[in-house]
Every structure is written in structure tokens, then in C-alpha cells.
Amino acid sequence: MSSSAIPTQEGHIDFPYQGETHQTYYKIFGDLQNRTQPPIVVLHGGPGLSHDYLLPHFDLTEQSFPVIFYDQIGNARSTHLPDKPPTFWTFDLFFDELENLLKHFDIQNEYHIIGHSWGAMMFSEFVTRRPHALVIADAPPSIALWQKSFKELVDKFPQDVKDDLAKGLKDWEPYWKAMMKIYAVHGCRAKPFPKELEYSLLLNNSPTSDRSVATSPILKDWDVTDRLHLVDVPTLVINGRYDIAQDYVTKPWKDNIPDSKWITFEESSHTPFWEEREKYMQSIGAFLTEA
């Protein structure tokens, strides 16, 4: 289904936090008011990307789920706060923003979550809240596992790619080309490379990027593994065969969340919603309908 054929609305909602009011951008596909299924809230990765690369999830409206996307504070179309100290960027900030969005649309008692990468990491800390079901897509339960896996995969590339990646933003053009070579294998194997994903990646990886969130210490030493037993909702864990979230990175979710199921998409890397879109949407829809 074309996105133009689906009822949509977009805008900004006020987000009060620590005596200031910020703006959270949202985009909704489907009809929230006359829904027959709980709405799905999609949490983007990064930290520091945007909702754009996750837009294939609007396909789930074909299964009667309204789908809500938003740009987390500090990113894309939401309020940017480059002058805030690194300590401003906390899990509590992003929890409060999500809770504010749920209450704004009056869905706090009935919703599903799809968290991709950082979005799943963030929501796994949100264990005291209760969605109807949780989808953890292409994410690690600890930052150490993610870093180990990424290094292993990068080490298999030619030396010139590794050297250019190490240059970082100070020598942006070779850095970006190197990162795209790695992403073509382990980030998104779809061809052509989705423009929406390229846009989101550039939000964090260009000389003019606002990297306030990306460079914050929010994930320093982060590990949720020992609290996963507290997740007491049906949970679907997803990764791709060529994912940065390799099987050993993904396995602790399945091992420690009591009511969980794990699917690996064999032709995908980090974004199976682009690489095996139809199969991915069918799997998500079936899981959420049964949850």
C-alpha cells in the first residue's frame, strides 16, 4: 500500500520537562479514533537518528494497526538542545517524552511498542510500564556486546576501509564512504540503499550534525541483561543473519525474557523492514494480533 492512500496526520506536541517546554514531532498512519487494534508506537535508533528510516512500518496499517512515529527530542524535527550539558541526556528524559506522547493521544493503557536498535535498548529500561506487547528489533541488551560485534565485523573489511572509518568526521568524505561500505553489508542490504535511511544516518554523521544526543554518555557501560526477567509482556526478538546484532548479541533477550520469541531474517542485516519487508510485516502483525 502506498503511504498516500493511508490516512495520516503529523505535527508537534508540547513536552514539558524540568521547567521548560519542548516540542516532539509525530506522524501517525491510520485512524486512532476508530481503531480495532491497539496502536503501535515505533521507537527509532541512534541515539540521534529519526523516524524516517522506519517508515516501512506503516505497512502494518493494512492489518488494522494505527502506527505512530516520532522524532525523539534533540533529533530531526523535534526540539534541538545543543547547549544542554551531556548529563541532560538521560533515560528518564526519553521515558518522560514517550509517556507524554502516550498520554497526549490517550493510549497509555493500550499500545504496542516496536523498538529498533537504540529504541529497543531505551524501552527495555522502561520495564515498569506495560505495553500490550513489545518488539525488540536488531538491538543489544548491553553496549559491550554491541561494540564487540561491530568491531568483529569491521575487522573483516579491507585495511583501507578500516583506516577511513577511523578518520571520523574530521575527514568526512572518506569516513562516510567507508561507513556506507560497512552498512551495505551489515546495515541494509537492500538496493538501492533507502534514501530515508541515508537521511537518518546523516543526522548523526555529517560535519553539520547536531550530535548532542549521539555523543552523550547515556549508553556508557549500559547493560540491562540482569533486569530482563522483569519484562512481563509477550516479546518478539528480531535480528538479521548479517546484522550488527549478531546471534550472540541477540540471544540474551530470548534467554532472559520469560514470554519471548526470536526470529532471524535470513536475507537481512540491521533493517529487515527494508530487506525482507513483506515477511517482516507479516511476522510482526501475526505476533501482535496474538499477543
Automatic annotation (TrEMBL):
GO terms for biological process: proteolysis. It comes from Trametes coccinea (strain BRFM310). SUPFAM superfamilies: alpha/beta-Hydrolases. This is Proline-specific peptidase. Pfam families: Abhydrolase_1. Gene3D superfamilies: alpha/beta hydrolase. Belongs to the peptidase S33 family. InterPro entries: AB_hydrolase_1, AB_hydrolase_fold, AB_hydrolase_sf, Peptidase_S33, Pro_imino_pep.
